[in-house]
Amino acid sequence: TITADHGVDLRLFHGRGGSISRGGGATNEALLALPPETVTGQVKFTEQGEAIAEKYANPLIAERNLEQMLDAQIRARHRALTGADEGAPAAWHDPMETAAAAAREAYRDLLDADGFVSYFEQATPIRVIEDLNLGSRPASRSGERTVEDLRAIPWVFSWTQARCILPGWYGLGAGLQAYLDDGGDLDDLRRLYEQWQFFQTTLDNAALALARTDLGIASEYAGLAPDLRDEFFDRIAAEYDRSVDLVLSVSGRDRLPPRAWVAENLERRNPYVDPLNLLQVDLLGRDELSETERRTLRLTVKGIAAGMKSTG
Questions:
Q1: Which of 73, 107, 117, 234 to pair with 57, CA 20 to 30 A apart?
Q2: pLDDT of residue 262
Q3: Total structural domains within the chain
C-alpha cells in the first residue's frame, strides 16, 4: 500500500450511520469485508446517536456488540498476516465495475428526472421532518428545493417513514442485470457471493433494506402525489421487484432477510407500525390541520421511527 511504502501506520476511520444507505449494517461483517492491506489491527469508529443507544445502552447488548467487533478484527488481521485472505482477484473487479456503473446511472436517472423532487415532497413526510427539532443542522444546506441540497439524514429519514427505503437498494437490480446483459453469468455472481465477503455483505445489506420496504404502504404515500404517481411509483416498484428477484437468485435464499431473526422481528413489528403509517398518510393528505392534528402528525413520525428503529 502507499502508506506502507512511506512508513506510515494506517488506521481507517469508519463513519457508521444508522441506516444501510449511510454506512449502517453489521459492523463485524464490514470489518471482515475490508481489503487485507487495510487491516492493521487498529480501527476507529464514529457511531450515529441512535445507533449508540441501540448498541450500547443495554450492557448485555453492548458486550455482545464489542465481542463481535473484536472477533472480526482479530480474524481479519489473522487472515491478512497469514495470507489466507489475498484480497479480491482482478477478475472479480469487472463484474463490480459493470454493475456499479449501471446502478449509479439508474439511481441518478431517477433523481434527475423532471418532477421527481415534487414527487418526493408530496409522497414522503419531508416537510414535517424539516420542521422537527431534530439534529444539530438544518435539513437543507441552502434552502433550495433540490435533492443535492438536502442533507443525507432527512433524505433517508423521509423514505424510511414512507416505508420505501430506496436509498438502500435502488439501482441494485439494474446493476446486476446490466452485468448479465453484458454476457455475465449468474453462476459467476453466485460464486462471488459465496467467496467474496465484500460482495456478500453488500448484497445482504441491500436485502435488509429491501425486506424493510413495504410497497403496499409506500403505495398509500404515492397516492398523495396523484399527478406523478404513475411515473415514479411504478418505476420504483419495478426496480424493487427486479432487485428482489436478483438478490434471491444470487444468494440462493428463498426470503430476503439474510438472518431468520430479522424476519421474525419484522413480522412482529410491522403490525404495530402499519396503522401509524396509514394515520400519517391521512394527516399528510389534509389541506389544513388543527394544532392537535399537527401534534399527532409529529407523533406519527416519532412512532414510525421507533418501530422502524431508524431515523436515517
A1: 73
A2: 81
A3: 2
Look at residue 144 in the predicted model and tell me its pLDDT: 60
Predicted model pTM: 0.83
Q: For 44-68, b where at least 16 C-beta lie within 10 A, e where not — what string?
A: eeebbebbeebbeeeeeeeeebeee
Angle made by CA atoms 91, 96, 98, in degrees to the nearest 5: 105
Last residue of a domain, one of 82, 113, 141: 82
Domain-located, residue 192: yes
Could you tell me if 214 and 275 lie in one domain? yes
The dihedrals phi and psi of 45, each to the nearest 5 degrees, come to -125, 150
Domain contains 174: yes
* Least confident range of 10-14, 159-163, 196-200, 262-266: 10-14
243, 210 contact by CB (below 8 A):
yes
Helices (H), 21-151: 27-32, 49-56, 59-82, 93-112, 116-123, 126-131
> How far is 170 from 107, CA to CA, in rounded Å?
6
Sole residue written with cell 429519514: 157
